[in-house]
Each structure stands twice: as structure tokens, then as C-alpha cells.
Amino acid sequence: MSTTYLLRGVAPLGGDRTDVRVEDGVVAALGADASSDGATVVDGDGLVLLPGLVDLHTHLREPGREDAETVASGTRAAAAGGFTAVHAMANTSPTQDTAGVVEQVWRLGRDAGWADVRPVGAVTVGLAGERLAELQAMARSAAAVRVFSDDGKCVHDPVLMRRALEYVKAFDGVIAQHAQEPRLTDGAQMHEGVVSAELGLTGWPAVAEEAIIARDVLLAEHVGSRLHVCHLSTAGSVEIVRWAKGRGIAVTAEVTPHHLFLTDERVRGYDPRYKVNPPLRTAEDVEAVRAGLEDGTIDVVATDHAPHTREDKDCEWAAAAFGMTGLETALSVVQATMVDAGRLTWADVARVLSSTPAAIGRVAGQGRPIAVGEPANLTLVDPAARRTVVPAQQATASVNSPFAGTELPGAVVATFLRGRATVLDGVLVDPAQVRA
Ligand SMILES: NC(=O)N[C@@H](CC(=O)O)C(=O)O
Ligand SMILES: [Zn+2]
Ligand SMILES: [Zn+2]
């Protein structure tokens, strides 16, 4: 029998305080109807209750790079960050380009029990950009793939991109594009601008991202399919997506926490923790992505949690891998940059970090309203908490956080996956112990 919880005096979506009873995996009662009989009481004084967070863009690294992360360690990090579902990116080894591999990842997630794992299927075989992977077989597999991406690589061949967009319509899928024209980013090490010129590093121009997004929204319009833009990072990209939405094109876009917070000025110290794809941009770009998230042009915040081993990160700038961890700091960064700045409400946070990513990924039972009878996928947050990020204390198996040593607002007090606590009193609760 599962534990029953009474969340006392919590503020759903930051609104009025109420009691919430969690029983048998669902929200069983609200307000005066929510009795504490037989329940473990959680004091919710000052706490905001959100639907469990859903990440559209997570690298779990298994199979292939279990030295950087596993499905178990990555989903543990997800639970610690308040997530109840993650989309596991396809750039594993072997690539998630067959029904067999996506089912393996889905099963590892189910067995670990920390969060729902929705594998992303590769668009092309081996991410090579040459021929389409078995999209339909992945969609029809137990993993029920709906999001397809060659993330890390761009589907740069327009004919292949057109075919992929056409093909996924049959099973309500979406192509999530890593928008990067490869010929314009050959050997690029950071954002192309004033700082790259001063440092003498090969630059990565904004147009390399914007040209692909412009092409893809037109392709999506032409074939009448859904397009999702991964980790959009420039002011020009925001403008193109705003234009496309105005035209009625079915495009959605995500921004990462790090692109909401950090600029290319960080690269001056040559610390590879700040090396990421797409690169950290300018202060003007940061303001544009914040404004885009505020006005709804950008639909989603997605972590692009990209764990790397010390060997792959602790080296000279040019040799270091691209990527930063993010699952355990995402909510705090969104609070710092958007909520505390008065640009998003907690209800907006629920939209950009839960209901909209769940809708884009067609994730059943996640991102739902906090209402009686709904699955109890919930996150309880203390917005008044402050903490300094210490990567070695995080649940992720890697330490490449760009926020190490930074003080951030907010803390996850509890996470519930279908009524079972994966985090309680700010401490991870091992699913294996609950089952035993
Ligand atoms: N974001 C990154 O810098 N790296 C990602 C790939 C990606 O998201 O493009 C990775 O897999 O390490
Ligand atoms: Zn990417
Ligand atoms: Zn990625």
C-alpha cells in the first residue's frame, strides 16, 4: 500500500493556500475535503505546488557513456530538480535510432522509478544525416516515441528534413531540430562577436542558427507538420519564431536555463564549463530570449542537461566537450531570471516547465492541472530558500555545472511521481526502498 500525504497549506501555482490530499497515486481531495486521516502531513507553509516538471531535452548518456551519466543517475537528478518526466535525447551509443534501443532506454527508466523516461528517436540512422531512421517502428514500440531529433547534429539536408516532417505526421510526431548550419560553424568554439574576436577563437555566428530555423519553419508550413526548435539562443531566432507563429505555422521553441542567465563574457576565463552548443550569446540575446519567454514566443524551458566526464571537460578550451548539466538548477534559474524579475508567474512556470512540454511530447498523465482525480505528479517548491550550487553534492554523475559556486533562489522540497515521493523534505527517496 502506498503512503497517503496531506500537503497542508500549500499554494497551487502560487495562488491561494489550500490543503491537498495525495492518495493511491492521484490528487484525492482539495481544500476542506482534504482530511489528514491516515496521512503523512507535509507542512506547506510558504511553499508553491506545481505540476511535476517535464523536460523536453535531457541527455541521459545510456547506452554508451555510463561514465558520464546513466538512466538511473540522470533520472535521480531529474527528481531532485522537481522533474517527473524527461525526454532522453537520441545521441547515445548505439544511437536511439531503432525500436530496440528506445525500448531499452524506456525500460531502464521504468525500472529505475525516479521519473517517466520518454526516449527521443533519432531522425536519421546514426545521426549521420543520410537516411531516415525507422521512425514508425519507434513510434509504435513500447516507448511510444513522439519526439524525433538528431540533437547534437542538425538535419541540414532540406530534402531529408522535408521527408522527416512529412513522415511523422502519420503518428502525430514532431521533429525537434538542433538548428545549426554545419558549414557556417566549422571549427567554431564560441559565439562569433566582440569577445571571440578579442580571444582569437573561431566564432559561431547567430546566422548559422537563424538560417536553419527560417528554412525549417517554411518547410513545416509547406508540409503542414509540427516543428520544434531546440535550445534557441539568439535575438534573431526569437524574431523568426515570432513571425512564424504570427503566420499560423505549427512551430514551438525552447530556451535553456543557461541561455536565460549567462553571456559569452564568461568565456574570457577559458573555463570549459562555459563551453556549450549553441554557445552562450550576448547580453542583447539574453534579453531577447527572456522577452520571448515572457510573451509566449518561446513555449518551453528545456534543460539540455548534458553531463560530461572530467576527462572530457577538464582540459584546454579547444579540446573540451560541449555541454553543461542542468536538471538540478533549472527551476532555480527560471525563478532567478523570470519569476523574481516579475516577468513570469508561477502559473506561467507550470506552463513552460510542465504542461506545454508534456503537450509537445504527447506525454500522457503529465503536466496536468492540480485537480481531484488527476495523477499526483507534483513538485513542491520553497521560493524563499537560497542555496549555493555544489556539483559534487548533486545527484547527476557529472560535475560540469556552469552554476557551481553561484547562489540561486528556490529549492525543491518534494517531488511526487504518481503519488509516490521521489523527494521528501528536500531528500531523495530511493524507489527501491519504497518497493521493498
Ligand atoms: N548541448 C551541448 O553542448 N551538447 C549536447 C548536444 C546538444 O544539445 O547539441 C551533448 O550531447 O553533449
Ligand atoms: Zn543540441
Ligand atoms: Zn542537447
From TrEMBL:
Binding-site list for Zn(2+) 2: 151, 178, 231
Chain segments annotated as transmembrane: none
Pathway named in the protein's UniProt entry: Pyrimidine metabolism; UMP biosynthesis via de novo pathway; (S)-dihydroorotate from bicarbonate: step 3/3
One Pfam family linked to the record: DHOase
Catalytic EC class: hydrolase
Cofactor(s) for this UniProt protein: Zn(2+)
Record lineage: Bacteria, Bacillati, Actinomycetota, Actinomycetes, Micrococcales
Dihydroorotase catalytic domain location: 47-234
Cellular component aspect of the GO annotation: cytoplasm
Database matches in InterPro entries: DHOase, DHOase/Allantoinase_Hydrolase, DHOase_cat, Dihydroorotase_CS, Metal-dep_hydrolase_composite, Metal_Hydrolase
Catalytic activity: (S)-dihydroorotate + H2O = N-carbamoyl-L-aspartate + H(+)
Gene symbol of the encoding locus: pyrC
One Gene Ontology term from the biological process aspect of the record: 'de novo' UMP biosynthetic process
Source species: Cellulomonas shaoxiangyii
Function description: Catalyzes the reversible cyclization of carbamoyl aspartate to dihydroorotate.
Homology family: Belongs to the metallo-dependent hydrolases superfamily. DHOase family. Class I DHOase subfamily.
Protein name: Dihydroorotase
